[in-house]
Design goal:
Number of strands: 8
Shape: elongated
CATH superfamily of one domain: Bira Bifunctional Protein, Domain 2
CATH architecture of one domain: 2-Layer Sandwich
Oligomer: single chain
Radius of gyration: 38 Å
CATH topology of one domain: BirA Bifunctional Protein, domain 2
Strand order of the largest sheet: 1-4-5-6
Order of helices and strands: HEEEHEEHHEHHHHHHEE
Helix content: 25-40%
CATH class of one domain: Alpha Beta
Structural class: alpha+beta
Length: 293
């Protein structure tokens, strides 16, 4: 909610001309929360990263409620744009163990995924931290540009592609084989696209069919018939994916006999006999009423 309202506030300020691009306002954030609660995962996640040192180590190690814990992480901000950020890292194995437990990992998961780090910290890792500036963001603000891509020599596109190197590019199959990577996903996507084309090209217009057949259908009946035909076409399209070459032909185990009836010339009916039960006739023919206008 805060992020949405903050973006709305800036957008309104731009539209009303309340933001001066030449007015530089600096800010240093020093009290970042250590953790935030994820409703989707139903657990705490690290606000910065899971290797950030808590601001109050003693409280962190003994408190059960970690919702109000701060981290030793910092941001350097200019006009709402982050120019640099960093943090003091955890260098003690007991603190790192406690951090992983707070994030919902059990002992087996911690040992399997981060056991090497916990062991390395036990050998006496010195206190350490890091901080990095984004020079390109500072240049963007000084140039009054709207996007960081305007001040980068070879910027990436919005889809993360590179216009200069044309990355990402196609990977050769032998390279994928070396890494043990298959292309099943590509084949599945292609197959799904082909099935979609078959279904869309084979769609039946139920309303037109009902009109030609002089049948009155309700909206519900039309929808049910369309769904039924779509399901039928989808089922039939599956047969296109079957590799019949690897299956042996099915042999009919029943003896094949000629069961057709021998042609026999019988006495033909007279015209009067054919027209005997006709509702109406004309000039020796059955008269069919005109039902299509």
């Amino acid at each position: 909610m805060y992020k949405t309202l903050g973006g709305l506030r800036l957008d309104i300020g731009d539209k009303l001309g309340l933001r001066n691009k030449w007015d530089y306002k600096f800010l240093i954030v020093t009290d970042f929360p250590l953790l935030e609660w994820s409703e989707e995962e139903n657990r705490y996640i690290a606000m910065h990263h899971p290797f950030t040192m808590p601001a109050d180590v003693d409280e962190f190690m003994k408190k059960e409620d970690l919702s109000n814990m701060n981290a030793m992480s910092y941001d350097f901000v200019l006009n709402g744009i982050e120019l640099g950020s960093g943090s003091i890292r955890i260098h003690r194995s007991d603190i790192q163990q406690r951090m992983f437990e707070a994030l919902g990992f059990n002992k087996e998961e911690i040992e399997e995924r981060f056991g090497f780090m916990i062991e390395a910290f036990s050998y006496g890792t010195p206190p350490h931290g890091g901080f990095a500036f984004g020079l390109d963001r500072l240049v963007m603000l000084m140039a009054q540009a709207d996007s960081i891509r305007d001040v980068i020599a070879f910027p990436k596109m919005r889809d993360a592609s590179c216009a200069m190197t044309e990355a990402p590019s196609t990977v050769a199959k032998d390279q994928l084989d070396i890494l043990g990577i298959g292309i099943a996903g590509d084949m599945a996507s292609q197959r799904k696209s082909e099935e979609s084309n078959i279904i869309s090209s084979s769609k039946i217009d139920i309303e037109e069919l009902a009109e030609l057949s002089q049948i009155s259908l309700s909206e519900i009946e039309i929808q049910e018939l369309e769904d039924g035909f779509t399901d039928l076409i989808e089922s039939i399209s599956i047969l296109d994916r079957v590799d019949a070459a690897k299956f042996d032909p099915i042999i009919n185990i029943h003896p094949i006999n000629n069961v057709t009836r021998a042609d026999e010339v019988k006495k033909s009916l007279k015209v009067e006999e054919v027209l005997l039960n006709a509702p109406s006739s004309e000039d020796g023919y059955i008269l069919v009423p005109n039902v299509n206008e």
